[in-house]
Automatic annotation (TrEMBL):
Gene3D superfamilies: 1.20.1050.10, Glutaredoxin (3.40.30.10). Keywords: Transferase. Its EC number is 2.5.1.18. GO terms for biological process: glutathione metabolic process. This is glutathione transferase. It comes from Ploceus nigricollis. PROSITE patterns: GST_CTER, GST_NTER. InterPro entries: Glutathione-S-Trfase_C-like, Glutathione-S-Trfase_C_sf, Glutathione_S-Trfase, Glutathione_S-Trfase_N, GST_alpha, GST_C, GST_superfamily, Thioredoxin-like_sf. One of its GO terms (molecular function) is glutathione transferase activity. Residues 85-209 form the GST C-terminal domain.
Length: 222
């Protein structure tokens, strides 16, 4: 074992992608194991690797961690991306939870029935432009700083950057009414660790395609 965190999930975004983003933003290299069959998944459960019979699974610092939120809290705390005190941590948590609600819609979108896709896409656009992005536009404008919390790069910034790019893939002009977020996106894109993660050949996964959806349904079928 190399000492690098080891990530077990499918070869696609899903619930592992925000974890990949956070590790990459912290400048941490990691290894990945991809599930391709139901048998691999069942074996992880049988061997006691998955506390709640769910992936993502991240092996880090001698722990076998499950539950996306717990994994990300640990990584953010370990790599100093979780604020300087409890108040800053609470703000980061609030922002992360809000972004997660938006990302959940994007996560489920590829599994929408064909006749619901257009409606679901409209919902993503409406929520992003009317509920979620205005919050962050206002925060950045009010305090006039580069980052969301404490004028320091944090987990909340990473999560927001991931969400902006994910929504833009579906709604390319989504930031047209958000000048602060446009500046934020440019600054984040130029941070060395994020810039590296956005290059071709990085561990960042492409948007889910039909093959990914098929693999998810095959691996997790009841």
């Amino acid at each position: 074992m190399s000492g690098k965190p080891r990530l077990t999930y499918l070869n696609g975004r899903g619930r592992m992608e925000p974890i990949r983003w956070l590790l990459a933003a912290a400048g941490v290299e990691f290894e990945e194991v991809y599930l391709e069959t139901k048998e691999q998944y069942d074996k992880l459960i049988k061997d006691g690797f998955l506390l709640f019979q769910q992936v993502p699974l991240v092996e880090i610092d001698g722990m076998k961690m499950v539950q996306t939120r717990a994994i990300m809290s640990y990584i953010a705390g370990k790599y100093n991306l979780y604020g300087k005190d409890l108040k800053e941590r609470a703000l980061i948590d609030m922002y992360v939870e809000g972004i997660s609600d938006l990302m959940q819609m994007i996560l489920m979108f590829p599994f929408s029935p064909p006749d619901a896709k257009e409606k679901n896409l409209e919902s993503i656009k409406e929520r992003a432009t009317n509920r979620y992005f205005p919050v962050f536009e206002k925060v950045l404008k009010q305090h006039g700083q580069d980052f969301l919390v404490g004028n320091k790069f944090s987990w909340a910034d990473v999560q927001l950057m991931e969400a902006i790019l994910a929504v833009e893939e579906k709604v390319p002009d989504v930031l047209s009414g958000f000048p602060q977020l446009q500046v934020f996106k440019t600054k984040m894109s130029n941070m060395p660790t994020i810039k590296k993660f956005l290059q071709p050949g990085s561990p960042r996964k492409p948007p889910p395609d039909a093959h990914y959806v098929e693999t998810v349904l095959k691996v997790f079928k009841k």
